[in-house]
Predict the 3D structure of the following.
Amino acid sequence: MTSTAVHELGHASHHRAVVELPGSNRIEDFVLADDKLKDSWARGIQYAFMNWLYPNQVDRIRPSYFDNYTGVVEGLLNQGLSLKQIEKTVVGNRLWRGWRRDVKALGLVDDIIVDMIFDNPYLAWAANFKDLIIGTSQIYTNTDVTYSLPPANKLPNQIQILAWSIAGEGHTIIQENMPTRSIKLRFNTLGERTLTARLKLIDSTEYSVVKKINVTSRGTITESVMPATGVAVTYRLTNYSGIVDKWEFSGITGRDYWIESTASNNITVVFKTPCTATLKAKIQDSELAVKSVTVPEDVPITAFLSYKNNDSPYDFWLKNVTTVMPPSTVSQNGSRTLEPAASKQHFMAYASRPKTNHPNYSLLKPIYENGFHHGKYAYDQQTYSEFAQYGIKAWVFSAQQPGTVPLYLIEDSKFKDKKMVYTISYLTQENLDPWRKVSSWYWNWLGTKKKGDRDWTERKNSGIIGYVYPYRP
């Protein structure tokens, strides 16, 4: 529905632009314009706006191209032209050949490419011929690397590769694969290289595309801080401006760490447990650099899972779980219900305070669990004499650290005949709004007569009790 509506808006914008163009004729320049021109422009608006609404889903949202509904606008957009530039060539014309002529007149796309798009308007032209060769623009010496043309869903298979060539000495061609339109290389010396792919276009015309490659000396992996449990460490590949395809740990499993973020040449990791591992930065299947990582022995950062007690009164339990994985759905555990893994009551924290030399030692504060008797708890940053038992449940950050989120202290209470029946406190990453709900209208009507509600439930938000990492499996 959205796609169709945008297509019709494309027609409307075309008509409006023609009407407002000085010297134009609404009848000749729009009503009598080639249907192929008008429908192709509307199809292009449809493609562009749907691609904007649903990024990175081109193959799913691309409209079909047939008859007067061509993909010329998509092809021109992917050659680097803007919608505004294409619109100017459309509005000034009513003929298909005139539109082609004015696109060439812009001088922004090679004539041979413009002709190919207009002559084959039903194909998906999703690749830019000015940057056609896929592969890194920087590579280390003695590293195997593959370069290729785009896949068939971006560059039609009718375009063939005739030959690859490399300007400059000091390289080895490991493999040329014409069916996949790719070449595997190894550069042995430093310096700039030019990789050229000589193509055979759909009309058998030859056309060459190039890629500049900078061959540099091998870099190293550096770390932002010394690794420790619960500390965000950023690893960066030096002397490399390209994109690392994969960061890979060996010697540990995914349960020993989590990835906080990645960028072109760096990765930020939080280690859960003490460990020794090897970190590899890779491009395709080749190693760019390797680093040994040691996380010293200390308190691990572990998962805390929330339990609800189905019995009366309605309580929350907080449990430190080091080996149990929470299920993806709610499951029963006796009278307790384990919250789903997506619950905002799950978080990562320390069960005890790390050693004094741990970088987070001075950044942590305790959360106490105060209990009247089995199953009735209250959480706070202090202990209370009226509670029969208490203890430190978790150590959390006192101020926000990279990757952490606020943890709020919430209390839900029930009152009957103006007396508190029970209150429960629990911890969550949700900043829940406080509320007060009056129950039993008849008794509250009587209570109002006697100046005050009798039965109600209420929620209090005591604010941020600390900062924690979101739950990580």
Observations:
- The chain is about 20% helix and 40% strand.
- Residues 2-20 form the longest helix (19 residues).
